[in-house]
Design goal:
The chain has 81 residues and is of the alpha+beta class. The chain has one domain: Alpha-Beta Plaits, CATH 3.30.70.20. Helix content is 19%, strand content 36%. It contains 2 helices and 7 strands, in the order E-H-E-E-E-E-H-E-E. The strands form 2 sheets. It has a 5-stranded antiparallel β-sheet, covered by helices on one side. Strands 2-3 form a two-stranded antiparallel sheet. A hairpin with a 5-residue loop joins strand 6 and strand 7. Keywords: Electron transport, Iron, Iron-sulfur, Metal-binding, Transport. This is Ferredoxin. It holds the Pfam family Fer4_15. One of its GO terms (molecular function) is iron-sulfur cluster binding.
Length: 81
């Protein structure tokens, strides 16, 4: 499973931070950041989700009020949102 985070879409509500420890607040930008991620295009960050964190990652995606977080399964199918 992988998570994709669109930093440009993020509005800094930090609900994802409360759901998954791999997101953290960047108060200087007023946005969340996804730790240990790779920028794959301008402002879009991707990383693998460890098996033991899949539920937390899904909750983080579901709580994002602007759908800045997308979860994909191992086949590349979009699961959330």
């Amino acid at each position: 499973m992988k998570v994709e985070f669109d930093e440009e879409t993020c509005i800094g509500m930090y609900q994802c931070v409360a759901e998954w420890s791999e997101f953290e607040e960047d108060k200087s930008k007023g946005k969340a950041i996804l730790k240990d991620s790779e920028e794959v295009e301008d402002g879009v960050f991707v990383r693998e989700v460890p098996e033991d964190a899949e539920l937390d990652a899904k909750f983080a995606a579901r709580t994002c009020p602007v759908d800045a977080i997308t979860i994909y399964d191992d086949d590349g199918e979009q699961l959330i949102p």
